[in-house]
Every structure is written in C-alpha cells, then in structure tokens.
Write a structure and sequence with these properties.
five-stranded antiparallel sheet; globular
C-alpha cells in the first residue's frame, strides 16, 4: 500500500509537470513573424524580439485546446454552466448594473438577461478571467498548433496592435488558454472590432469596468445581427424518425419553418415571423433526447462561441436568471 502511494504521488507530480511544462518558441517562425510585424505595422524589431524572448510555448495551453468542453454531451456540458451559483450571481450582477443594462438594451436592442448570461458563462461575472499569459497562449497556438495556426497568428497580430494602441505591456495580461481576455472573454480581434467605451471615459476597459463590458457584449451581438424582440429557441416534440432528416451540423438556420409538421415535429408553440430555423437534438443521458427549434438569435449567440451547446447554455441560463430576477421584483413591490 505504501509503495502504491509513493508511485501515485510520483505519477501526479509527473502529470502536473507535463501540464505546466514550458519550452522555447519556434525561433524561425518567431523571426518571420517579427519581420512581418515590422514591415506591415512598423513595429520595432528589437523591442518585439525582447518580448518574444520572454514568451514561452505552453504545454498546458496545447493540452487544454485539444479537449474543449464543447466535445462533451449536452447532459455533461449543461452541468458546467447551469448552476444555482451562476443564477444567483447573475441576479446580483443585474441588480448592481441595472441602469447600464437598460441603457445597453435601449442602445443595441440586446436583452439584459442575455448580456448577463454571457458574462456569467464566460467568467462567472468577472470572478475568473483566466490564468494564462495571453502572449504565451497566442504564441503557442500561432507557432505550435498547425490545425489553427493561421487563425491564432492573426489574433497574435491583433493582440500586439491592441497593446500598442492601449500602451499596455503585452506580457502583463492574463486570459484564457485561447487568448480570450477580460470579463467578457474577448479575443483580440473582437476587442478591436466590437469593444466600446460605454461610459465615455476615453478607454474601453473590458477587464475592470462593468459598464464597458456590458456595452461591449451588447455591441458584439448587435453587430452580428441580433433581432430585438425575436425568439431564440423553443422546445418541440416529435413523432417517428423523419425529423432526423432535418438535423444537420451547420449552426445557421436552414430549415423552412413551413415544412416542420411534415417531418413529425410539433408541440405547443408559436413561431413568430421566423422563415427558417435549425432543428437541434440534445442528449439527456437517459437514451432520450431533447428537440429544440432554434432561430436567428440563437445563431447570433453561436457567433460568440461556435457551438450549439454553448448557445443553449447561455439561453437556458438567461431564462433562469430572468425568471428569478422578475420574481424578486414582483415580490418586492
């Protein structure tokens, strides 16, 4: 028994070492990138080199991106985000930022409970914004993750532009293993395209300023085509197996609403002015499934994270937060 414990302890140390191991970046790839940034944007090559000399390849980042939560079945994925703690936190965040959320909804047309749920899913309302240096994460994925190296080189480019524009130390900012930052977890290109200075103090601060965070999330959804007042998703029941012909991997609504009854999809619902929809099947873990009809606003949520599971988690959390928030307000009157 004692020998087993010793071996187990050694194995745990080895596992932790592998998870947190760092190594130098690919020198050739880094030099090519530095030359590109100098030519395209007039970055000082020596200054960039000094930054990259302190940047490392992170095995933890590579391990994390190889097993994203979105690969889980729905009944496991849902447990991560649909929790009483996130509902309670959402109500508290809404109450503390009531006026800002109302202004964001009026300005951008995005409901308060959707904005709140996004921040809740991403960082538990700012309580956990990531532990990886963004420079390490983006460089690791740009130069050592061939599957998506082009995308992450673009984000590394955007990150260096962002830090120069904001006069920030690129080695000082921490975020997710994929380089997402701040309370709303914006990747660098999202920050540069969609972040807004919602309190007009001269800076779009998504790290410490809830006003700018709320405005930036609303701006993001607005720019991606959010339709005010429209439905997001509704549950449906099915008969037979013909409905399976309508279940596709594409996230965009691609099924004509008028034909769904022909495929055995029905239920007590009303579809308001939605010409197309997506039929979504979710595993329940009991050899059964939930069937949902998802509309354009559901697709817009997937622009934040390209996953139907993510969008459904945001939607369901937002509904729970809204119900509780409205009940509290009714009770207090």
């Amino acid at each position: 028994m004692r020998m087993y414990k010793i071996i187990s302890a050694i194995s745990l140390v080895m596992l932790n070492s592998a998870c947190f191991a760092t190594a130098p970046l690919d020198k050739k790839a880094v030099n090519e990138f530095i030359n590109y940034m100098h030519t395209a944007y007039e970055f000082d090559s020596a200054e960039l080199k000094s930054v990259f000399d302190e940047t490392v390849k992170s095995q933890r980042v590579l391990n994390a991106i190889s097993r994203p939560a979105e690969r889980l079945p729905w009944y496991e994925y849902r447990k991560i985000f649909i929790q009483n703690e996130r509902v309670d936190g959402g109500i508290d965040f809404w109450q503390r930022n009531r006026e800002t959320l109302a202004r964001a909804e009026e300005t951008y047309g995005v409901p308060a409970h959707i904005i709140v749920a996004i921040i809740g899913v991403e960082t538990r309302y700012g309580n956990y914004t990531g532990r990886d240096r963004v420079m390490d994460a983006l460089s690791t994925l740009a130069f050592h993750y061939p599957k998506r190296s082009k995308f992450f080189r673009g984000e590394l480019e955007q990150y260096l532009l962002l830090t120069r524009e904001q006069n920030l130390d690129p080695l000082s900012i921490k975020g997710s293993y994929a380089g997402a930052m701040g309370m709303p977890q914006f990747i660098p290109s999202s920050y540069r395209n969609y972040a807004v200075d919602f309190d007009r103090d001269g800076k779009a601060d998504i790290w410490n300023n809830p006003v700018d965070v709320i405005g930036s999330v609303a701006s993001y959804f607005n720019r991606h085509g959010w339709q005010p007042g429209k439905q997001i998703a509704i549950p449906a029941s099915v008969q037979g197996d013909k409905y399976r012909q309508l279940i596709r991997d594409d996230l965009k609504p691609d099924v004509d609403t008028a034909v769904i009854n022909d495929y055995g999809i029905n239920g007590e619902f009303k579809i308001k002015d939605e010409p197309q929809l997506k039929v979504l099947s979710l595993e329940t873990g009991e050899d059964t499934e939930e069937i949902w009809l998802c509309f354009q606003n559901f697709y817009v949520i997937t622009r934040y994270n390209h996953s139907a599971l993510y969008a459904m988690a945001v939607f369901q959390l937002s509904e729970m937060i809204a119900d509780e928030y409205n009940n509290i307000n009714l009770t207090s009157r």
